[in-house]
Design brief:
Blueprint lengths: L1 E14 L3 E8 L4 E6 L18 E7 L7 E10 L8 H17 L7 H14 L10 E2 L5 E2 L18 H21 L22 E2 L5 E2 L1 E4 L4 E3 L1 H6 L5 E3 L1 H12 L13 H19 L4 H14 L11
Parallel strand pairs: 3-5
Antiparallel strand pairs: 1-2, 1-4, 2-3, 4-5, 6-7, 8-9, 10-11, 10-12
Length: 314
């Protein structure tokens, strides 16, 4: 049976002397692995038709449980050429597509994950159109308009700009939170895990004698614990600063990537939120942090010393 679908290239490996094995996240068939025969020959019909992080229109012979699917035709819909020169964006794309590949099961259609990865790659390449942005409805499900080619207009990430590289990192946090939410692993930030009392917007808990005490985050338990409960229990959790907690809560609630545009964070806030999400991802998705750390290291180096220290005011 021949299948036609839109698909994003997750990774490419050489196979034999002339072929490629390509892992894709498809719109309608989940993650699939295909063989592209003759792809390494000098003259072949697939030359320039696919590469890392491309979105393609794919035609393949479905061979369920019979080995690799065979690609018949492939046509690029989005090249995302910025990834050839814009290394901070490429590092983010590499890490996030690896995370999507790890969490997407074979043959299980996950349109929300496809839409999220599509938007993430556009964002990291600095090619986000208003019409292509994935948003989240009141039911928590992603809403993405019909497919449209990116034009590069209205992009929040402008290669070479200092603030855009901060946006890459905060954007990465937003995409991690949305990925966790779509998988049903969203960290609980609205109430204490232990006493179930709502958390104040400042993030501080209130002790029995009315004192304001900092709250803690437990990656193992999947959320925040008020100061009063954290002091009483034997939690192996870390304290979280109120402003970093407010950022985390704001991004989790934000339905659209544009929410990060007007937020400028300090290095300490980026470090706090990065550490919390990193430990959470490790606990709940068992994800290796190597790609994540490499991406953040490249972003830090790219920002250099001219980082804007302006604090976020919730
Ligand atoms: Zn509590």
């Amino acid at each position: 049976m021949i299948i036609k679908t839109n698909a994003i290239v997750l990774n490419i490996r050489p196979f034999s002397e002339s072929s490629h094995i390509v892992n894709w996240l498809t719109d309608a068939h989940g993650r699939i692995t295909t063989i592209i025969k003759g792809a390494q020959r000098p003259r072949n019909i697939f030359l320039g038709q696919y590469d890392l992080f491309y979105t393609c229109e794919l035609l393949f012979y479905l061979r369920l449980f019979q080995g690799l699917h065979i690609v018949k035709e492939c046509f690029p819909l989005k090249h995302r050429a910025a990834f050839r020169t814009y290394w901070p964006g490429t590092a983010c794309a590499s890490y996030f597509s690896g995370l999507a590949a790890k969490t997407a099961p074979l043959y299980a259609p996950q349109k929300h994950l496809y839409a999220l990865l599509e938007t993430a790659l556009d964002f990291f390449a600095g090619q986000v159109d208003e019409a292509d942005i994935v948003s989240y409805g009141r039911d928590g499900q992603p809403v993405r308009p019909s497919f449209k080619r990116a034009t590069g207009q209205g992009c929040p990430a402008l290669p070479g700009s200092t603030s855009s590289n901060t946006h890459l990192q905060t954007g990465l946090f937003w995409f991690e939170l949305k990925l966790l939410g779509s998988l049903g692993y969203a960290p609980r930030l609205d109430a204490c895990l232990q006493c179930h009392q709502p958390m104040s917007t400042s993030g501080a808990g209130v002790s029995a004698d009315g004192r304001r005490v900092p709250i803690s985050f437990s990656a193992a338990r999947g959320g925040v614990i008020c100061g009063k409960c954290a002091g009483q229990g034997r939690e192996t959790s870390g304290r979280i600063a109120p402003d970093s907690f407010a950022l985390l809560k704001f991004w989790q609630a934000a339905r659209n990537i544009h929410a990060i545009r007007n937020v400028v964070c300090s290095e300490r806030q980026l470090k706090d939120v990065g550490a919390i999400l990193g430990s959470f991802l490790q606990h709940h998705l068992e994800s290796e942090n190597t790609g994540r750390e490499a991406a953040f290291s490249i972003l830090r180096q790219w920002r250099g010393t001219s980082f804007n220290q302006e604090r976020f005011s919730p």
